[in-house]
């Protein structure tokens, strides 16, 4: 297995270890349908998984049960049936095709900045360009990691991720002077990293749409 494929499969294993992703997916379906409904669903995955047939197949089998699904939400029982053979795994950025279809132009870039990854997807006339779309670990966790190292060095401390995450949201570390500047510098570094990820894109005349929770942090 080459290194690229190994990294993609590692990412898939992270999904498998964290069942919350599957639980939330099935819960969202349960809240959107009536009991007894038959469901055909599409679920997004990182581009790195989508481009790897083996990883995509494993993710498909992990996320979609076949047949009846029973879910209890706030003490209420829900059940529905999944038509697994008709379900799809698609790139996460495809959700923007439905949410923001009125904003799509001939050239549109979707930059989905999440907790773990940045998925950068280039669409030309509504079709995904596989060669210039990519995934990198430039999500929120990488921002927290960089900021933690900077703050620990500057403050001569050992902050944990929770403390650093709070400092990131409020813009400074409580009780320490000049940390607002460090937070701003780290966000600037992260924005530049993501811009570098898009260097292969011809931005002339392109519509850029940023989605994902971390995009608001970097806005």
What's this model, at a glance?
The protein is an alpha/beta fold. It is built from nine helices and ten strands.
Unreliable segments of 5+ consecutive residues: 1-6
Q: Give me the CATH fold name of the largest domain.
A: Nucleotidyltransferase, domain 5
Main CATH class of the largest domain = Alpha Beta
Give the ordered list of helices and strands.
HHEEHHEEEHEEEEHHHEH
Q: Give the N-terminus to C-terminus distance in angstroms.
A: 38 Å
Structurally, how many domains make up the residues?
2
**Largest sheet report:** 5 strands, mixed
- CATH homology superfamily of the largest domain: ATPase, nucleotide binding domain
Report the CATH architecture of the largest domain.
2-Layer Sandwich
Kindly estimate the percentage of residues that lie in beta strands according to DSSP: 15-25%
Helical fraction equals: 40-55%
Radius of gyration: 20 Å
Task: Report mean pLDDT, rounded to a whole number.
Answer: 88
- Shape assignment: globular
């Amino acid at each position: 297995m080459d290194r690229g494929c190994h990294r993609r499969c590692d990412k898939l294993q992270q999904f498998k270890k964290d069942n919350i992703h599957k639980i939330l997916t099935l819960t969202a379906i349960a809240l959107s349908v009536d009991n007894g409904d038959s469901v055909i669903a599409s679920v997004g995955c990182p581009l790195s998984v989508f481009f790897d047939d083996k990883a995509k197949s494993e993710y498909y089998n992990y996320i979609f049960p076949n047949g009846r699904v029973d879910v209890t939400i706030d003490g209420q029982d829900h059940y529905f049936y999944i038509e697994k053979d008709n379900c799809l795994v698609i790139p996460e950025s495809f959700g923007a095709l439905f949410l923001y279809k009125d904003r799509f132009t001939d050239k549109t870039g979707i930059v989905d900045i999440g907790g773990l990854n940045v998925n950068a997807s280039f669409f030309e006339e509504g079709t995904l360009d596989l060669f210039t779309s990519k995934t990198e670990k430039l999500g929120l966790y990488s921002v927290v990691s960089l900021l933690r190292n900077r703050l620990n060095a500057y403050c001569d401390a050992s902050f944990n991720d929770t403390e650093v995450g709070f400092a990131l949201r409020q813009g400074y570390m409580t009780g320490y002077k000049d940390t607002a500047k460090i937070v701003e510098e780290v966000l600037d570094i992260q924005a530049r990293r993501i811009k570098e990820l898009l260097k292969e894109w011809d931005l002339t005349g392109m519509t850029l749409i940023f989605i994902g929770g971390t995009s608001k942090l970097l806005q």
